[in-house]
Amino acid sequence: MRPRVEEVRIQGLGVIDEAVLELSPGFNVVTGETGAGKTMVVTGLGLLFGGRADPSRVRPGAERASVEGTLVIEPGGRVAQQVEDIGGEAEDGELIISRTVSAEGRSRAWLGGRTVPVGTLTYLADDLVAVHGQMDQQRLLQPARQRAALDRYAGNDLVKPLRAYSQAYKRHKQVAAQLEELTTRARERAQEADLLRFGLEEVEKVDPKPGEDDELRGEEERLSHADALRSAATTAHTALLGDPMEAAGGPHDVISLLGEARAAVEAVRDFDTQLAGVADRLAEAGYLISDVATDLAAYAESIEADPARLAAVQERRSVLSSLIRKYAENSAGVLAWAQQAAARLAELEGDDERIDELTREYDELTARLTELADRLTSVRQAAAERFGEAVTEELTALAMPHARVVVQLTQAAEFGPEGRDEVELRMAAHPAAPPLPLNKGASGGELSRVMLAIEVVFAGADPVPTFVFDEVDAGVGGKAAVEIGRRLARLARTAQVIVVTHLPQVAAFADQHLVVEKASDGSVVRSGVVTLNHEGRVRELSRMLAGLEDSELGRAHAEELLGLAAADR
């Protein structure tokens, strides 16, 4: 399902007070008397999709102009995903877009119920709509769009070489960036290498071990408090076992007291199992205290003041602390930094060899890119010739028999993501005229017809869901007008088409005919856009043909036009 505009509501825009357009998925025409506000319909659609806000377009007496559009989109499709990415919602495949312009020039936009910058509407519209107004022929005037459209028109012939070119271009760009890095930052890299060497020499000289800083910190604490530690251990040992200089433990040492307690309980343990358990626990406590006392004695004997060792530890800690302050948080971190620094230094010292390797690869890739770019140019040139001939043929049928459209390819100085080709559509208004860019080689009315011819040719290659044309039939009539209607109907087979026209030959081909009604006082009344049934279309076409809605001759001609269009479809 392709996206399409289902309904548009316009308020306070130009001569339009309020209007509602209900649009069909196919070919829609908007007609009406001069000054009724037909062009404001195109202006409203342009605003809806990010067009420039002109406060002079706000209806006199109104505070603001507003346009609201309801679009049918594919749930889960690309457009729905874009709306979701900005926080908007499209419920059941229905997306609401709103735009207001105040009389003071302030503009606001909403997308899926969320306020967004106007640029967001422009970005979204790029894949939704192509607006071709008299002063708004922007889509295919963009060089990047022209090249992309030509590539799609070229079809499968371009797919494989363009894929190969894109892969080579990506690697070429990476190699160029690496060479730039190596050659332009040689001084900085040399300075970096010197700093790394100095740091590695420092680390190698000190030769830190993992966890050494923590071990030294603990040893320094012990050596600094050796007397206090030995005294504490001795005192605790005496408290547990008594003074070893005495023949037996003192009356208040822990082992003696535990022995007395255990003897008292052991004497009566057979009378109560609960007390027997207490006796066992007292025995365990005695064994435990004996073990602790032994450990305390061994500890007290191992502790001794060593001023020389203390000085050595403090000096070693000072050297390690200096390294840690520079390179890491601890000795293990210093070793990790040294490992990384060594790897980086090896990389820096291998720059010359690496530069030679990259230079060889760069030259090979440049030659490969040149070959692939030439192949792309060849394919594009062939597609450009076919395209120019097809558009020129269309223009002949659109009352521009002497006009000629060509696609000019020029070579850029540098490789780009899509090759070296710069693509520009040009038109010669007559055989003696030189081909000029589209916006310079055609008048406003001619440009609309050129754009129609281009869109018809590009319809299968560069599809856009909705096309809007304003006065595409300016300056033509008769058979040429019929051909314009026929081509718009052909375009509507693959896209939604909305056309503002004053030609009945064009209007007859529409699937849906909307008329902007003009009030007797010259302004447009509320709900001034009306969808016509068959009888209404006959009356409107008769008015457009003869200036009289009820002219029998005009009505007969209108019926004939509708029959011709129906048969052609």
Automatic annotation (TrEMBL):
<keyword id="KW-0175">Coiled coil</keyword>
<feature type="domain" description="RecF/RecN/SMC N-terminal">
    <location>
        <begin position="6"/>
        <end position="521"/>
    </location>
</feature>
<dbReference type="GO" id="GO:0043590">
    <property type="term" value="C:bacterial nucleoid"/>
</dbReference>
<keyword id="KW-0234">DNA repair</keyword>
<keyword id="KW-0067">ATP-binding</keyword>
<dbReference type="GO" id="GO:0006310">
    <property type="term" value="P:DNA recombination"/>
</dbReference>
<feature type="coiled-coil region">
    <location>
        <begin position="162"/>
        <end position="189"/>
    </location>
</feature>
<dbReference type="InterPro" id="IPR004604">
    <property type="entry name" value="DNA_recomb/repair_RecN"/>
</dbReference>
<comment type="similarity">
    <text>Belongs to the RecN family.</text>
</comment>
<protein>
    <recommendedName>
        <fullName>DNA repair protein RecN</fullName>
    </recommendedName>
</protein>
<keyword id="KW-0227">DNA damage</keyword>
<dbReference type="InterPro" id="IPR027417">
    <property type="entry name" value="P-loop_NTPase"/>
</dbReference>
<feature type="coiled-coil region">
    <location>
        <begin position="348"/>
        <end position="382"/>
    </location>
</feature>
<dbReference type="Pfam" id="PF02463">
    <property type="entry name" value="SMC_N"/>
</dbReference>
<keyword id="KW-0547">Nucleotide-binding</keyword>
<comment type="function">
    <text>May be involved in recombinational repair of damaged DNA.</text>
</comment>
<dbReference type="GO" id="GO:0009432">
    <property type="term" value="P:SOS response"/>
</dbReference>
<dbReference type="GO" id="GO:0005524">
    <property type="term" value="F:ATP binding"/>
</dbReference>
<dbReference type="GO" id="GO:0006281">
    <property type="term" value="P:DNA repair"/>
</dbReference>
<dbReference type="InterPro" id="IPR003395">
    <property type="entry name" value="RecF/RecN/SMC_N"/>
</dbReference>
